[in-house]
Amino acid sequence: xxxxxxxxxxxxxxxxxxxxxxxxxxxxxxxxxxxxxxxxxxxxxxxxxxxxxxxxxxxxxxxxxxxxxxxxxxxxxxxxxxxxxxxxxxxxxxxxxxxxxxxxxxxxxxxxxxxxxxxxxxxxxxxxxxxxxxxxxxxxxxxxxxxxxxxxxxxxxxxxxxxxxxxxxxxxxxxxxxxxxxxxxxxxxxxxxxxxxxxxxxxxxxxxxxxxxxxxxxxxxxxxxxxxx
Length: 229
Fold this sequence. Notes:
The protein has two domains: about 1-60 and about 170-225, 3-Layer(aba) Sandwich (D-Maltodextrin-Binding Protein, domain 2); about 60-160, Periplasmic binding protein-like II (D-Maltodextrin-Binding Protein, domain 2, 3-Layer(aba) Sandwich), CATH 3.40.190.10. Helices cover about 30% and strands about 20% of the residues. The chain has helices at about 1-15, 30, 95-100, 125-135, 145-150, 185-195, 200-205, 220-225; strands spanning about 40-45, 50-55, 60-65, 90, 110, 140, 160, 170-180, 210-215, 220. The radius of gyration is 18 Å and the shape is globular.
């Protein structure tokens, strides 16, 4: 969906679009924005001081993914007793690990690597494959990845945003676009485009099954958008 958003903004600005790809690991911002290999990072969390961010274009969180009929579809928090004896997939070194440790769930967890060569591997896809086979009972993933892969599964999987975890690592983030610290006018231009096209952006995110939240942690869905004037 980030590529689709880049296409939308390039069209609005009348600019030619090109991409730079780089592993999202140590040095990512320095080797991309900082080296002038690109002019914007499409998905950039607000609060990260490695670059300056535009206004956010969505707010999301980590989410639980499970099969329909598993009995876990109504789990909305990691401390739910239903998870006590379940085998849970989780990506190493991500915030949900903190809450799983707090609730004694790591003993039954299956861990997936945070950093992989995405040209040949995907921790999210591996987790979904394990869920389909029954090797795990549920998984906890970054919301946009959870929604995308769950929507592609056959049959589709259930995605439940986890918004109740407040006592430890941050789980919910506002996502904007990252630009160089010196590019003030560029930041203002992108922020204006986000504001002017928020309705279209929301529809794009929902079409990719991205779980998006308002500021009170209520889900923004196609149904809620249809009720807006």
